[in-house]
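Final report, closing paragraph on structural work. Over the funding period we assembled a curated collection of sequence-structure pairs, and we close with a single example.
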Amino acid sequence: MRGAPGAGGAPGPGGAPGAGTASGAGAASGPGGEPGAGGAHDTGVRDAFDRDDLPVAEGATRALLRSLLVPRRARVVLAAVLLLLQQAAVQAGPLLVAYAIDRAVPALGRGDRGPLIAVAVGYAVCAAGAGLLQYGFIRTSARVNQDVLLDLRGRIFRHAQALSIDFHERYTSGRLISRATTDVESLRELLSEGLQELIGVLLSFAAISLLLLWLDLGIGAVAVASFVPLYLLVRVYRRRAAVAFSARSTAIAAVIVTFAETMNGIRPVRAFRRERANDARFQALNRHHERRNGDAILEMARYVVGSRLVANTAVAGMVLWGAYRVASGTLALGVLAAAVLYMRRLYDPIDRLAMFLNSYQSAAASLEKIAGLLAQTPTVREPAAPKELPPRAGNPGREVVFEDVRFAYRTGGEVLPRFGLTIPAGQTVAVVGSTGAGKSTLAKLLARFYDPTGGWVLLDGVDLRDLATPELRRGVVMVTQEAFLFSGTVAENIAIGRPDATREEIEQAAKAIGAHDFIAGLPDGYDTDVRKRGGRISAGQRQLVAFARALLADPAVLILDEATSSLDVPGERAVQRAMDTVLHGRTAVVIAHRLSTVEIADRVLVMEGGRIVEDGPPAELISGEGRFASLHRAWRDSLVG
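Its predicted structure, as stored:
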């Protein structure tokens, strides 16, 4: 029994996966359209990008943080112990001062220097110990921080690569960049600075409270009572700042998305004079980010002012009351001096606590977004019990069968109503039709970029959903219109088809395609860096490199998605000669935009509305009176014109 139709993944996003959804321009504008070029309202900008935030399950953020810290718990415990000892050394200072005032100085008046020397030595030891312990803590915590950030960035990158095509067509690359940079940086600030401040403040509060209660119960009670309004201030700040920092994180992601989109599309920007419109849009998003950042700073300012008011009032009241008690003989002067020092140490970290809360809220908002990303699961899933394709018996191609296949995107109607199609092994099939007819969707189902909503796509009788990704990619290769090249050398880009290939095999593939001569003519030959997206060579040359890559991979099934549509006539002829070589003997599906490509096909499928309306050899369809004959006549007349 085959798996249930649709098993193995949900359908893709709303809208066809053609131009627009995958491009920066279509993706970055977000749902609902982009803000007007002449300037965006604050609400419109916020709404356009907030809707792209991913849902986060309850507790997912804490679970992510635990998964990052638990493998490093030994160092975390060591860092905590070092910080605890450092705080003990620091908090010993005021006690030594009290002892010096009440005991050592009177003893010195009696000619006994021992207590004062002991205080001086003790103070020096505590100061040196605090410094050394602080150094140890910083080194240990820094190692933990860097390991956590390295782990998190790696998770984001690996997970983003593993997610299905439909996710990338609705979640822009700029947002992924923001998750791996800005949001990870927020976590770095928390781990490297904020946690030390928090632990230091909490230890200070606990130790100083106990010491003040031990020194004098009344003074200690005043200090503890002042914690109540401080606690209420912290609660209000956390609630309000959580909203402010989440909005700030979303706003900076919108800025990054727009910047990346504009730089990636700089050619059409220049060609269509979009500079001023893009600048207006960017400035609107930039101002929106400025306002959200200002909101976060304002919340922190309110907290600092309120906490300072509480702290100064408590210290002033304690000093006045303590001075009265010293004058009345019910409190030792040294105890009052130590209490004042402790009270100052108790409230001085309040500003640092605000900075921690600042870092915490920013990191919490960022972790929530990262957790939402990492919680996404591929809709095209790996099989639980993968199968292998049967050996190719003499024929380099494989049979392809679409059996009762249906496909619909998440938010739209059916793109491909139920249909069946069989492509014998070794046959080249050209698929033609108007835009939106379903040609590219058919190709992407065969490449398993999506799974069908119903039915099965079979390769030599094996459901594609039962094939592990490496097995599938060895059997099926897709060459797209863009012919994407990565930064690196020409040889490295060809070897993507088979990374273990030798230089000789790479050159043989290029010669077979007809790309060797132009590659040899490059400044460094096969070692020439093609630069970003292959911008150093022409579109036709990039396509030839892509064909050499496909030939080297030696797939059984090759999909060409409008591989010549963007080329000039000489480039098209060169690519068509390459196609003759790379398609020889293989099963091929050619999505044809130019009907000249159809000449190499054994069979032509004409699609309309997701259905196959004509099917037959090219010569037979041309001689008839159907849809393909009309398309061919129109194409031939355009050449004459």
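The longest helix spans residues 275-328. The chain is about 60% helix and 10% strand. We thank the funder for supporting this effort.
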